[in-house]
């Protein structure tokens, strides 16, 4: 039977067919070889402007964070800061909360200057509200949020370190700006910083809030924020202030512990003087600090108690920037 | 009937008896008055040398700590340090581990210079062993231990703060002296401090141990230490070194996290130059650091793996000593 089979090609097809078959096989092999040679080239980075689809698997939702930056009347600063923040390690996505009502976002210009390291989403708002940034954005995929004011520059080193600290304290607001409330004999609270008296728990000062304008916190708190008493939203809208104080109340109530963990920044800068818009930020208003003391007392009423707790823990990075920054005279 | 009763004294006893009774009553009243006047005086602090019994309820076992200080050939430093440490806030008791074999403890002198703020127990040892201080002393009543070398002075401010930090991180060794191990391509580990290369996890340095010669840790770890492989005790006895490295291995294995939390001391001093004994401490031996690298590798064998983990968290006290020590240029 074997010999019978072998004889078939020679006898049935003939030599012309044999040649034809050989040529076809050779051509196919050449084409296959050519394709194999071409494949690496298609993936070559030198090919211009192939729009890269964002790869959702590149930064796992657990190991990365979303930057939420609200902006009003400082688009020049926003763009400057976006160039900086878009390249921070472990960044997953940027959400820009666009409070310039009726004004076009810079999305076109942004895209024309692509590609960018991460996706940036411009969320157009209908009303200019301070609490717009505290929405539970559907684009938010990560457990961690980094919230930054649109005039604040924090170095990548500080952010990378603070993110690692947040991962160890995920239920806290981990950030760079500590503040406190103090009690007074009348029972009325006052808001301030280190220039205010120490609360008097042993040596040194204490803080009871970490401001969310330069901090990491768990995205779950944005969900929680949607479920607060109406009076909280009314207060924030009335003052166009205090959303950060409200968040600290929320977190403190939730954990029963100090709401924040303060990480001492090495390089934090306020860029508001650099803006061309002339707009210099809400905290310059005459009533700003008085409003914040007012908010503390209102929130105590709304929440029927003072949930904020004091802490005196100040965290810095071991051996950075100075590799011997913990050296002592021992 | 009432009148019948009234007539009885006059008729039955007579006037002499009535006078006698009155005198007795008056004398009794005077004596009672005198006793009442005397009672406060008996409690007066001016009364000399009434030995006070230690009150076990004065420092709750949860809110206080026990100082364990091992001493060898530096009794002058010991006594200097005891005067300092006996007054630290939240101290419950001092346990002195007396490694001066055959020598009398200074207990008599100590008692003659009383009263003291807390009880001090001198535990006479039979053999001069480094690991004597890691016994599970029956006198230990508190959850927290403060272990100090007998040549190290840490300020009360630093200790009060570090104790408050330990209360927030009770499963860690919270202390003032960070060290690290590094891997090498050969797989052999080396031990050192900041002068060694960074382990290379991002920016800056990392530590993987906090030495127990100036640290707070949970007394439960002394219990755990009694249940370690024999080879660990043999290693410590062979080197008269490395008990602290062994404790860090134990804690890291137990928690699965970095064993220590480093608190940057404001005022830590080594007093060994001040001793009259001429004895200058084990760490001056030529082989001291080589031994410690040797111990790291031996312990990895004994525990079948490297449990130590890196951390770069450095904790300082907010607003102390400088009330504005967190101020930034923002």
From TrEMBL, chains A, B:
It is a single-pass type II membrane protein. It is found in: Endoplasmic reticulum membrane. It holds the Pfam family Glyco_transf_64. Its cofactor is Mn(2+). Its main location: endoplasmic reticulum. One of its GO terms (biological process) is UDP-N-acetylgalactosamine metabolic process. GO terms for molecular function: alpha-1,4-N-acetylgalactosaminyltransferase activity; glucuronyl-galactosyl-proteoglycan 4-alpha-N-acetylglucosaminyltransferase activity; metal ion binding. InterPro entries: Glycosyltrans_GT2/GT47 (IPR052427), GT64_dom (IPR015338), Nucleotide-diphossugar_trans (IPR029044). It is an enzyme of class 2 (transferase). It catalyses: 3-O-(beta-D-GlcA-(1->3)-beta-D-Gal-(1->3)-beta-D-Gal-(1->4)-beta-D-Xyl)-L-seryl-[protein] + UDP-N-acetyl-alpha-D-glucosamine = 3-O-(alpha-D-GlcNAc-(1->4)-beta-D-GlcA-(1->3)-beta-D-Gal-(1->3)-beta-D-Gal-(1->4)-beta-D-Xyl)-L-seryl-[protein] + UDP + H(+). PANTHER family: EXOSTOSIN-LIKE 2, SYNTHASE CPS1, PUTATIVE (AFU_ORTHOLOGUE AFUA_7G02500)-RELATED. Glycosyltransferase required for the biosynthesis of heparan-sulfate and responsible for the alternating addition of beta-1-4-linked glucuronic acid (GlcA) and alpha-1-4-linked N-acetylglucosamine (GlcNAc) units to nascent heparan sulfate chains. This is Exostosin-like 2. It comes from Neopipo cinnamomea.
């Amino acid at each position: 039977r074997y010999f019978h089979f072998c004889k078939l090609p020679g006898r049935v097809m003939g030599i012309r067919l044999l040649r034809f078959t050989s040529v076809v096989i050779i051509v196919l092999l050449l084409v296959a070889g050519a394709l194999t040679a071409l494949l690496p080239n298609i993936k070559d980075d030198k090919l211009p402007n192939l729009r890269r689809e964002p790869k959702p698997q590149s930064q796992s939702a657990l190991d990365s964070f979303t930057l939420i930056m609200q902006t009003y009347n400082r688009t020049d600063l926003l763009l400057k800061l976006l160039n900086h923040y878009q390249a921070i390690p472990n960044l997953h996505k940027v959400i820009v909360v666009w409070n310039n009502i009726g004004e076009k976002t810079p999305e076109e210009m942004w895209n024309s200057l692509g590609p960018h390291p991460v996706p940036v989403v411009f969320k157009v708002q209908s009303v200019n509200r301070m609490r717009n940034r505290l929405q539970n954005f559907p684009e938010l995929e990560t457990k961690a949020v980094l919230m930054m004011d649109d005039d604040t520059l924090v170095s990548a080193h500080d952010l990378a370190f603070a993110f690692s600290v947040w991962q160890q304290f995920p239920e806290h607001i981990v950030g760079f700006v500590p503040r406190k409330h103090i009690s007074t004999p009348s029972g009325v609270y006052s808001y301030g910083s280190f220039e205010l008296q120490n609360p008097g728990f042993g040596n040194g000062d204490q803080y009871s809030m970490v401001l969310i304008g330069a901090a990491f916190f768990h995205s779950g708190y944005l969900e929680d924020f949607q479920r607060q008493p109406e009076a909280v939203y009314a207060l924030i809208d009335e003052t166009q202030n205090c959303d950060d104080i409200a968040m600290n109340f929320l977190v403190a109530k939730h954990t029963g512990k100090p709401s924040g963990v303060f990480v001492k920044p090495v390089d934090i800068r306020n860029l508001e003087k650099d803006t061309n818009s002339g707009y210099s930020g809400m905290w310059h208003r005459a009533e700003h600090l008085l409003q914040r003391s007012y908010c503390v007392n209102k929130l105590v009423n709304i929440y029927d108690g003072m949930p904020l707790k004091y802490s005196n823990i100040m965290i810095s990075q071991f051996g950075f920037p100075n590799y011997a920054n913990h050296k002592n005279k021992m």
